[in-house]
Design goal:
Layout (H helix, E strand, L loop, with lengths): L4 H9 L18 H13 L7 E5 L5 H8 L4 E6 L2 H12 L6 E6 L11 E4 L10 H12 L2 E7 L3 H10 L2 E13 L11 E12 L5
Parallel strand pairs: 1-2, 1-4, 2-3, 4-5
Antiparallel strand pairs: 5-7, 6-7
Helix pairs in contact: 1-2, 2-3
The structure holds S-adenosyl-L-homocysteine.
The site of S-adenosyl-L-homocysteine (SAH) has 20 residues, from helix 3.
Length: 207
């Protein structure tokens, strides 16, 4: 069990990330400080400890492993990229005293499990249009409480699609995401993008 947000960020910073990120799949690991801050908020809301969590598009696992460190009972790690899952397995082995971890290899579209909470930092849909929509729809079918990262500029879309599915946005936390530059000529600059972590909860009111 991890006793402070700073400690959690340190633990998460030790995880291995993608060897060769597949840009088509928008493989960017969530920065450990950002992941720790978002998961800490979730934990303070009573949404992690003793819960069953689904980490959709888990990549190398920073969000789901953070949940296990914060006392989740079980985490489903759902990911379609086999290489990312190999790294996830190494990451899981590097921590002791974890709750149950179940790896589900495949497209999130076909994930049929149920959980109390979904955590996800999905593709933002810049390479595959509507990738973020597919993740949100799967999240609505999986859990009543969802923590999902999206570009801040798409906030209206996130709120509207949530309402369409009988969910509502209850909290928003803004982050500046550090993105590693891939182009040589940008190497000296750290690019940041404005991202919001949304807490979305089932309201039961269908439009
Ligand atoms: N959640 C991780 C990774 C974020 S990058 C983190 O926070 O660090 C987005 C991840 O979604 C990548 O690992 C990518 O391979 C995965 N992904 C993209 N589309 C997917 C799909 N349709 N089904 C399952 N995983 C997918």
């Amino acid at each position: 069990m991890t006793g402070s947000k700073a400690r959690l960020a340190i633990e998460l910073s030790k995880l291995k990330v993608f060897d060769k990120p597949d840009l088509k799949l928008e493989q960017y690991p969530t920065d450990s400080e950002v992941a720790a801050a978002a998961l800490w908020n979730a934990s303070m809301n009573g949404d992690i400890e003793d819960k069953v969590v689904a980490d959709l598009g888990c990549g190398t696992g920073v969000l789901g492993i953070g949940c296990l460190l914060l006392g989740a009972n079980k985490v489903f790690f759902v990911e379609k990229d086999h290489e990312a899952l190999k790294i996830l397995e190494k990451n899981l082995k590097s921590f002791r005293c974890l709750g149950e971890a179940e790896i589900v290899e495949g497209d999130v579209e076909y994930f049929a499990g149920k959980a109390d909470v979904v955590v996800q930092n999905p593709p933002f849909g810049t390479k595959q249009e509507h990738a973020d929509k597919a993740f949100l729809e799967r999240a609505f079918a999986t859990a009543n409480t969802i923590y999902s990262f999206h570009k801040t500029s798409t906030q209206n879309f996130v709120e509207a699609i949530s309402a369409d599915h009988g969910f509502e946005v209850t909290h928003k936390w803004k982050f500046s995401f550090p993105l590693k530059q891939t182009q040589e000529f940008h190497k000296s600059r750290i690019k940041r993008i404005e991202v919001t972590c949304f807490r979305i909860h089932k309201s039961g009111n269908l439009k």
